[in-house]
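Quick question, first post here. What does this chain look like in 3D?
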Amino acid sequence: MSDIDIAQANESTEIHLITQVATDLGLKSDEIEQYGPYKAKITPQALKRIETKPAGKLVLVTAINPTPAGEGKSTVAVGLGDALRQRGHNAVIALREPSLGPVMGMKGGATGGGHAQVVPMEDINLHFTGDMHALTCAVDTLAALIDNHLQQGNKLNLDPRRISWKRGLDINDRALRNVVIGMGGPYQGVPREDGFDITVASELMAVLCLASDLHDLKARIGRIVIGYTYDRKPVTVTDLGVAGAITALLRDAAKPNLVQTLEHTPTLIHGGPFANIAHGCNSVIATRAALHLGDIAITEAGFGADLGAEKFMDIKAPVLGKTPDAVVIVATVRALKYNGGVGLKELQTENLDAVTKGYANLHRHIENMRRYGVPVVVAINDFTSDTQAEVDLIKDLCAKDGARAELATVWADGGAGGLNLADAVLAALDQQSDFQPLYDIQADVKDKLNVIVQKVYGGSGTEFSHKAELNYRMIKRNGWDKLPICVAKTQYSFTDDPKKLGAPTDFKLNISEIVPKLGAGFLVVKTGDIMTMPGLPKQPAALNIDIDDDGQISGLF
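> Answer (accepted):
Ran it through. Tokens below.
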């Protein structure tokens, strides 16, 4: 059965009403706002009340560098949550919301898979509670207000050539990367070059996910730099006078969404910034709620640990006020073989030599996470093509590195397939965690970036383009250099070249641009040819999606 078939079969017979999920979680009837029978938002009043409860343990689920198809990080996170519940713990899961870009493109959705899924999966993967649409509306409203300001006299002296705010759309559309607007005469606006970001790459998404509450959200939105004047002074949303209006559009989107797994584990799904463009973690609001509602919160960070997990540790954790008590690194046999030089079409064939060679990638991720002083567990996400010899080899290699590795069969078996992993995580949570940040936040931008490149990626340093060098000087001149670094690079490699797999060393990271994101509170460092508006693949997933006359959706996975 496909993921959607499994989800729909369970949804029709076993899914609990969201009111029951909320009650079991200790929420009052007036502390949720229902979106139909199986989805709800948690009110700000509830969030404030539960903050008086002690926070539970935090488990961060991350991964090695993936194959283009993804390696089931969300599936493992969901299965681990279900397994911990079976072990008697009050586990609560906190995940990102899916973007329609991957759903309609190549990677698929973000609700897990098989018997380790969050439901209702069709709703979550498509329009859910409308958060993405609200964000898109807010992004484009701000863009419209900027262009209206130009049209109506431009009192702020904005230079149309230096407007940095882009429009947004939550779908992969390469044709919108670079556009010209305002054509058609003086009544149609001021002509200028513009472009679109995918919504999940917009600064507003990062702002939503790092804000502590509505007050903080409004303050962060006000700090967003939308462009520069003719004499190159920054102009913010506060200068434009519309921080309140943009925040108002996000009032409901700021409330975390409550759903459940197939085994009824409470799951908060809220926010979804891309990890190779933004910081790749769900909202601070949702993670805090999970910590206060349960005794163990399981959350994830996007793509490999070199991207999402590093950003969780160095960008999200200081805002969250809580560092992970344990880290789970998801690995697969096929991803290790892929990083060991095996082509996508040969990944189902046993190849112990390739597993051994590709293990260098996993080894580096283990060492990187240990550098933060946090206990590490490896989850081997099971695929039917895996052989026992390959799984045993990975366990042996991990053991030599002092890391416990457990096979997770959660796709096929649900929580029962993650019990050994749950036991390993519980053992890790009993260990001492001595968190150490990767770099000194007060250090120079180039120094912080070099620490990431040398200690996490395994490179020797950086090479700045002329544009990036000018950006660096501007950031220093404006006093923005004490912000953390958010590297935007390919997810497939430690380098900026997706073809350099495994664990390359002694390379230079090519820096193409540095973009200050004052609302989010970090500096986006773009590498190589990374794009903030992806394109659809030759065979997009949308070709497999259909709906029947009764409204039943098929082919979503």
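The first strand starts at residue 32 and ends at 34.
The chain has a mean pLDDT of 95.
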